[in-house]
Amino acid sequence: MAEHDWVSERFAEHQSRLRAVAYRILGSPGEAEDAVQEAWLRVSRADTGEIENPAGWLTTVVARVCLNMLESRRARREESAGALPPEPTAPVTGRQDPEDEALLADSVGVALMVVLDRLTPAERLAFVLHDVFAVSFGEIGTVLGRSPAASRQLASRARRRVRTASDETDAARSPKREVIAAFLAAARNGDFEALLELLDPDAVVGEVRGGQAVAAFFSGRAEAARLALVDGVPSAVWSHRGEAKAVFTFSFGDGKITRIDIDTDPESLRGREIAFLSAKVSEV
């Protein structure tokens, strides 16, 4: 009974942090709560006689549960992102110290959750545990069944992918996206005046020079062009039957379009990374 009480006290002491770990790894408040409950069932039956670091031990147990859930989710081909995860609203029982509260608050970055969904389960776990919660690669290796060096490589690879995806997310929110979206809408609608507002007076497209000429060139055209990130940069893409046929790259000056380059070379297009975006433009 004394041993069970010790485990119960340690679990309650670290529960908010465990929930933060589970939420950051899984990206779902409901699944995080399930993971913490499953972890409690495991630790309540475990032999705790030789445990010297309760916080590390409990984190390892929760991480193993989360890894199993991620792998199961992947095996079922479920999309973990879906709608953006909401902020967790379930109250945390027991006392929370400022450090635990900070960890929980830091664990609910919605934008990062979307990025993490691009990682493999092992990459995601290694990155989150090390970069967010400062868990050693030795402990991470224990969870993953890999060496500390292999765990370090997983975290490093994940970090690069997170950085790239984060840059793309920033690019998708940039003012350039809004200008390009407005340009495409004006071109489709044949709104000559709106095109002029978006174009620099000296704008250039190939041999076509001057804002008036460029506006006339695009007015009523570009019906099939879609807003996209091309190699992480806001652009426009015309595709046919799912294959990119032309990429429109925009240059800007003082918030206006100064140049539009059109790439139709099949070899060049095959080497580009294209991610289509919503064409919604914010109201001003």
Walk me through the structure.
Belongs to the sigma-70 factor family. ECF subfamily. It comes from Amycolatopsis roodepoortensis. With 284 residues, the protein is α+β, with helices and mostly antiparallel strands. It is 56% helix and 16% strand. The protein has twelve helices and seven strands. It has a seven-stranded mixed β-sheet with strand order 2-1-6-5-4-3-7. A hairpin with a 2-residue loop joins β3 and β4 (233-240). α5 (110-116) crosses α8 (148-172). The longest helix has 25 residues, at 2-26. The protein is elongated. The N and C termini lie far apart (65 Å). Mean pLDDT is 80; it is low at 77-111 and 280-284.
Could you write a compact summary of the structure shown?
The protein is built from twelve helices and seven strands.
Question: Topology of this protein?
Answer:
Blueprint: H1 2-26, H2 29-44, H3 54-75, H4 98-106, H5 110-116, H6 121-132, H7 137-144, H8 148-172, H9 175-189, H10 192-198, E1 199-205, E2 208-209, H11 211-218, E3 225-230, E4 233-240, E5 243-253, E6 256-263, H12 266-270, E7 274-276
Parallel strand pairs: 1-6
Antiparallel strand pairs: 1-2, 3-4, 3-7, 4-5, 5-6
Helix pairs in contact: 1-2, 1-3, 1-4, 2-3, 3-6, 3-7, 5-8, 6-7, 6-8, 7-8, 9-10, 10-11
